[in-house]
Amino acid sequence: GAVVSQHPSWVICKSGTSVKIECRSLDFQATTMFWYRQFPKQSLMLMATSNEGSKATYEQGVEKDKFLINHASLTLSTLTVTSAHPEDSSFYICSAYKTDTQYFGPGTRLTVL
Amino acid sequence: GENVEQHPSTLSVQEGDSAVIKCTYSDSASNYFPWYKQELGKRPQLIIDIRSNVGEKKDQRIAVTLNKTAKHFSLHITETQPEDSAVYFCAASDPGTASKLTFGTGTRLQVTL
After folding, report:
1. DSSP string spanning chain B?
2. CA of B93, closest CA in chain A: separation in Å?
3. What b/e string do you get for A4-15 counting C-beta neighbours within 10 Å, with b at 16 or more?
């Protein structure tokens, strides 16, 4: 199998606070994980590529100091949205790479008030 | 980088009819093309994929065809059922980073009774 979990499934926070989202590959090791953001009725927008033991690679236009990514083990990557603002409200989805394919987590719905 | 276009954006078919979704990609070096199905509020789920050394692949009611010369690939769903209603995304691998995918904009398929 290739099961990916994500926690929390939803979170509501106040503007200015930070939120951490975890992505875990449950039954396989993933040297590479990806973080996406998806706005309503839109496609998946890649934010960054997370490689175990090294710095994440961010896509153009994504602020690395705002979206902190840590991939400390082969089964866990975290995304921290720092100083969140209402425009950061979105559906954040991670994926883990295994054998040419990406397997997605269930997503985290972030609402910033 | 890779660019993927997907058509149509919405598709409505009657139950039992066939549905076809088409995608084009820009980089001839791309070699892996997955299709994902995403239900509302859920994770994208891989439904079928194809590699560049194959022209067609079928899995029960779902098939994918690939034309490398024209750089386009298509998803075919036969005998559609209401549970096929969802958003479908095509994707193409990034030649520079094999694990990275570029997604199409999505097709909202509605299967009516």
Report:
1. ---EEEE-SEEEEETTS-EEEEEEES-TT--EEEEEEE-TTS--EEEEEEETT-SEEEETTEEEEEETTTTEEEEEE-S--GGG-EEEEEEEE-SSSTT-EEE---EEEEEE-
2. 9
3. bebeeeebebee
Judge whether residue A1 has pLDDT over 80.
no
Average pLDDT along chain A:
94
Confidence of residue B98 (pLDDT cuts 50, 70, 90): low
Contact A43 B89 (CB under 8 A): yes
Confidence class of residue A8 from pLDDT cuts 50, 70 and 90?
very high
Instruction: Search chain B and give the residue with CA nearest A46.
Output: B102
- pLDDT given at position B22: 98
Residues B104, A104: C-beta atoms closer than 8 Å: no
**Predicted confidence band of residue B64 (pLDDT cuts 50, 70, 90):** very high
Q: CA–CA separation, A82 vs A68, rounded Å? A: 7
Q: Cβ B89–A100 below 8 Å, yes or no?
A: no
Q: Do B99 and A43 touch (CB under 8 A)?
A: no
Q: Which amino acid is at B111?
A: V
Q: Is A43 an interface residue toward B (CB < 8 Å)?
A: yes
How much of chain A is in helix, strand and coil states, percent to nearest 5?
5, 55, 40
Nearest to B74 by CA among B28, B20, B37: B20
